[in-house]
Amino acid sequence: MSGKLRLGVIGAGLKAAEYATSWAKMPEIEFAALADTTAASRQRLIDVCLAAGAPEPKGFEDYREMLAEMKSKLDIVYVSPPMPSMQSR
Question: What is the CATH number of domain 5-81?
Answer without folding.
Answer: 3.40.50.720
